[in-house]
Amino acid sequence: MESFFSGCKLKIGQIVFVLPSEVPDLLRNGACIVDVRTELETEIKAFGAENVVYMPFDELDAKWVSLPLEKPLIFADAVGLHSKEAAEKMHSKGYCVVASLSGGIADWEKDGMPMKAGKYQELNGPCPCMIRPHERK
After folding, report:
1. Is-contact 123 131, C-beta < 8 A?
2. Local structure of residue 78 (DSSP, 8 states)
3. Residue 19: its pLDDT value, please?
4. Is the pLDDT of residue 132 over 90?
5. How far is CA 21 from the centre of its chain?
6. E strands within the chain?
7. Per-residue DSSP letters for 40-57?
8. What average pLDDT does the structure give for the chain?
9. Helix (H, G, I), strand (E, B), or coil: what is residue 101?
10. Which of the ends of the chain has fewer CB neighbours closer than 10 A, N or C?
């Protein structure tokens, strides 16, 4: 089962980093995305894929046993920082069929992967003092 991610291009140390374009095939073969972003972040933008589990990073230590451990897990966040930490935590617990989504949901969206809008209106702006509703086309 550890070889599940063997076709992925990037591995640093014990952690495999999957590209957004690699994820659909991995999901079809039984993997699951574990979104470790906060609830607010997931309500703004969400992965438009099947097999997504929400486990905020700050709850991972206490609730990791509730993850679908029979499946390969792809940890994902906003840009790939907490997902790497989450994959490392799981690896240290002996669960080795884990990967981190390179670039998080930011690269997922940039690469044209399916997205779902959350219940909150998407915001944009160059700094917090200028945030305004995102103009939809």
Report:
1. yes
2. S
3. 95
4. no
5. 13
6. 10-12, 15-18, 32-35, 45-47, 52-54, 73-76, 98-101, 115-117, 123-124, 132-133
7. HHHHHEEE-SSSEEE--G
8. 87
9. strand
10. C
The model carries a pTM of 0.84
Closest CA to 78 of 114, 101, 119, 106: 106
- Rounded CA-CA distance 60/36 in Å is 8
Architecture of domain 2-133: 3-Layer(aba) Sandwich (3.40)
Residue 1's pLDDT is what?
A: 41
Residue 68 to residues 31, 71, 74, 81, 115, Cα–Cα distance (Å): 10, 6, 11, 22, 22
Cα–Cα distance list, 45 to 9, 104, 108, 124 (Å): 27, 12, 11, 12
Tokens of 119: 């219940």
